[in-house]
Amino acid sequence: MNNYPISSQLFERAKQVIPGGVNSPVRAFRGVGGTPLFIKSAKGCFLHDADGREYIDYVGSWGPMILGHAHPEIIAAIQEVATHGTSFGAPTELEIELAEEVIRAYPSIEKLRLTSSGTEATMSALRVARGFTGRAKIVKFEGCYHGHGDSLLVKAGSGVATLGLPDSPGVLPEVASNTITVPFNDVPALEAVFDQAGAEIAAVIIEPVVGNMGCVPPQEGYLQAVRDITAKHGTVLIFDEVMTGFRVAFGGAQERYGITPDMTTLGKIIGGGLPVGAFGGKREIMDCVAPVGPVYQAGTLSGNPLAVTAGLTQLRLLRNPEIYAHLERVTKKLVAGFTEAASEAGVSTVSNRVGSMCTAFFTAEPVIDWTTAAKSDREAFGRFFHAMLEEGVYLAPSQFEAAFVSYAHTDEIIERTIAAARKAFAKV
Ligand code: HOZ
Predict the structure, then answer these.
(1) Sheet-wide strand order for 39-43
(2) CATH 3.90.1150.10 location in the chain
(3) 204: part of which helix (H) or strand (E)?
(4) How far apart are alpha carbons 187 and 176 in whole angstroms?
(5) In the chain, where does the domain assigned CATH 3.40.640.10 lie?
(6) What number is the average pLDDT over the span 288-295?
(7) Are residues 128 and 109 in contact, defined by beta-carbon separation less than 8 angstroms?
(8) 198-251: per-residue pLDDT in tens?
(9) 145 catalytic, yes or no?
(10) Which of 62, 120, 145, 153 has most ligand 1 atoms within 8 Å of CB, for mutation?
């Protein structure tokens, strides 16, 4: 029996006019099979689909909804600002306020530029790093995903890993050849690359806590080693905190691990659920950006007043440390509950967590990089995913995406989720 008749109909219709029926590949459920849910509305930690079913949501729009969906203060702020006009293509005071708010939380950022997505932020940051250093090569890590910019679609995580795609056609070999990849959490591999080509490397870009191969934390001392190696070679270290920014701590992974990058990219949470990205860093690097410097970057909707208002309102609410204490506590409880439920059912899982990001990998071996993540049993994950859906819990439809917990996830919701997991693991 099809429990999702309306979503199924919508999916068939969508496939006629949108590639794969979706506007971003992971949403198509290819990683788990079946029909993607079409969502009608969301409130707090709940999603409602087109078939009238309710789910506890652990996707949170892939990270931005840290306070839960349709937060009343954010909605009210957007409505108020919208009455004054929705886009001017000219500066507003709101943009300064958002930049000031971010800079206060991220001492490594002296200046920043707003974009409309995380992808734009990472692409722009690389261009600036190349312009600043006059070097061509960049280093990224296997299984890390930094949006779909050409230079970054090499051994990428997220949808690329989920779909098992080879490096994307359409990325010119001469572009890809300037991207060097190394395994995450492997200091000798990074040292070897720098010993060989250090003077040619403009930037190292890293998810300081990986979210795009599932959640993979940096091992003790790893980020410091990356910092030391890049500093020694005059290479720009870019922390891609699109997922981790204002997520694993108010000041992101750089605050949590005490490491100062040269540049940072942000997105997701800083838009409060509307499209905002940002790249920023040291003044001398950011002053390469036009119109101060020669590195060109622009955007009609950059700094859009609605998006900036949503982000600013969310960041001001997030100043309350009680929110992070809650997120830490309930996510820890969730992971402990999953681990116990899996072990009771005799299913091997390894769970990684940093703050309110976590993943249960269907494997018996510690997951520290892409090689170990890729050993997960994706079919078992798919069965678990669908069993959870049946129980009213919406997880990311891929083994290689992190779960995000929000402030709206109460203890009672976490307990309901663990009870659902008990039943779902029994069906794996
Ligand atoms: N690449 C995103 C997750 N890492 C998915 C974006 C989406 O489907 O909205």
Answers:
(1) 39-43, 46-49, 54-57, 393-394
(2) 5-67+320-425
(3) strand 201-206
(4) 23
(5) 72-317
(6) 97
(7) no
(8) 999 999 999 999 999 999 999 999 999 999 999 999 999 999 999 999 999 999
(9) yes
(10) 62
- Range list of H helices, 68-141: 72-82, 93-105, 118-133
Q: Which atom of ligand 1 is nearest to the CA of 212?
A: 4
Q: Calculate the average pLDDT of the chain.
A: 96
pLDDT at 166 over 70: no
- Please answer whether residues 397 and 31 qualify as being in contact, where contact means their C-beta atoms are separated by less than 8 angstroms: yes
Structure tokens at 362: 């269907």
Q: What percent of the chain has pLDDT over 70?
A: 100
pLDDT tens digit sequence for 80-118: 999 999 999 999 999 999 999 999 999 999 999 999 999
The alpha-carbon radius of gyration of the chain (Å, integer) is 21
Is residue 194 a contact partner of residue 201, using CB atoms and an 8 Å limit? yes
Whether ligand 1 lies within 6 angstroms of the CB of 27 is answered as: yes
Give, in words, the CATH class of 5-67+320-425.
alpha beta
With beta carbons less than 8 A apart as the criterion, state whether 72 and 99 touch: no
The answer to whether 383 touches 17, Cβ cutoff 8 Å, is: no
Q: Does the C-beta of 196 come closer than 6 Å to ligand 1?
A: no
Q: How many angstroms separate the CA atoms of 68 and 405, rounded?
A: 9
Where does 72-317 sit in CATH, by number?
3.40.640.10
Rounded CA-CA distance 170/180 in Å is: 18
Which one, of 337, 335, 339, 349, lies nearest residue 403 by Cα? 335
